[in-house]
Amino acid sequence: MHKKVKLLQGNEACVHGALYAGMKFFAGYPITPSTEVAEISSYMLPKVGGKFIQMEDEIASMAATIGASLTGLKSMTATSGPGFSLKQENLGYASLAEIPCVLVNVQRCGPSTGLPTSPAQGDLMQAKWGTHGDHPMIALSPTSVRDTFDLTVKAFNFSEKYRTPVILLLDEVIGHMREKVELPNENELEIYDRKKVTVDKKEYKIYDQTTLVPPMANFSDGYRYHVTGLMHDETGFPTNSTAQTKKLMDRLMDKINKNLDDILLYEEYKIDDCEELFITFGCMSRCTKDAVDTLRKKGIKAGLFTIKTVWPFPEEKVTQLSENVNNIYVPELNYGQMIQEVQRVCNSDCNIVGINKYNGEIITPEEIVDKVMEVVKCQVAL
């Protein structure tokens, strides 16, 4: 069977991936540089029997996405910058209430209104800690247009599999980049649908504590249950019990932490013998890969570890890699966010160097090479 080959923008590939995964509902509010996700969803969803709605703001669009998911529809919303901030309260609600949904954030330069059409990666920490309280979070970050398609499918799969919101953390470069993409055929990629409820309606417990991920009944299926943002028991009704609260929170964390082998996605490039290691994510992976090739030609053993599941952070893998290299470089379009995680988990004596831009420009391969040469020459001189 011949595969479809298309010229797609990253934001467009996101919608194609969502539809491939079975998206049937999108609620959003247009905001640069994510607007194309909503625009394309608005005319593609009705063609497959789905529903699109433009809400009055980002708070309402997140709420509508949650509501649609409760009825059984695979649901998505998209935003950027200030809109991501507005979605955070309902994102926390979805985490505690265990409601599957996908939230796309095409990052732009901030804070506040910032530079609406310029690239940045400044929402990395917000993706994990943007909403209040302790909560589990899965966030994926693609490096290309085809990768955006694939990780959108993964985002829906993780969301349905673990009953949790999943963030797709694009950046403006990936969102607006256009590339030739070979789309997978139907049934080529795994598609995960939420577990079906098999127990009697009178015995059903929406938050059954005997399993990490309880089956979720749709509102339209005749199962009666309560959904709340308060701490709750197995039936979904609020509780003030400290024992119940601990039991609930432990399960929420365990369903992610005990499945890291499934959730953690990354890519390795020339790291087997590397002495100078790059750790990065999103659009900076491509620039860094070019820099690795240039450094290799100069006789410097450079390698690249691209993190695609940015949350949970791949702690064990990064710790392991740090034990065999001289220096770790973290190129990122912010003041220094991922480097904090790298520093936290590295127990070895390797030197950790940040390579940063936060003015709306990308870091070029030449700038990355120059930084490495500067560090290496200084160490040789010592």
TrEMBL record:
It comes from the Bacteria. It is an enzyme of class 1 (oxidoreductase). It holds the Pfam family PFOR_II. Its EC number is 1.2.7.11, 1.2.7.3. GO terms for molecular function: 2-oxoglutarate synthase activity. The keyword Nucleus does not apply. Residues 276-368 form the Pyruvate:ferredoxin oxidoreductase core domain. This is 2-oxoglutarate ferredoxin oxidoreductase subunit alpha. Residues 16-245 form the Pyruvate flavodoxin/ferredoxin oxidoreductase pyrimidine binding domain. The lineage of its organism: Bacteria, Bacillati, Bacillota, Clostridia, Peptostreptococcales. Signal peptide: none annotated. It comes from Paraclostridium ghonii. The keyword Oxidoreductase applies. Keywords: Oxidoreductase.
